Amino acid sequence: MADTHTYEFNVTMTCGGCSGAIDRSYEVSLENQSAKVVTALPYETVLTKIAKTGKKINSATADGIEKSIEIPAAA
């Protein structure tokens, strides 16, 4: 079984519709402006998926460690 990781993102959301754009895939708190993901996927995959919702990512952690929020260039 693959190792799982916990990723937390601070994402700018202004309404329930905004959080819904992310919530379809992740645990989201509009009140806390956060999205939490527990998965075996690589951090960059999750970061890119959230970025594609069009919401601004303000900060992020992976397993409690601060991570870059720069979107990786397409391969």
TrEMBL record:
InterPro entries: Copper_transport_ATOX1-like (IPR051881), HMA_dom (IPR006121), HMA_dom_sf (IPR036163). Keywords: Chaperone, Copper, Copper transport, Ion transport, Metal-binding, Transport. One of its GO terms (molecular function) is copper chaperone activity. One of its GO terms (cellular component) is cytosol. GO terms for biological process: copper ion transport. It comes from the Eukaryota. Belongs to the ATX1 family. This is HMA domain-containing protein. The lineage of its organism: Eukaryota, Fungi, Dikarya, Ascomycota, Pezizomycotina.
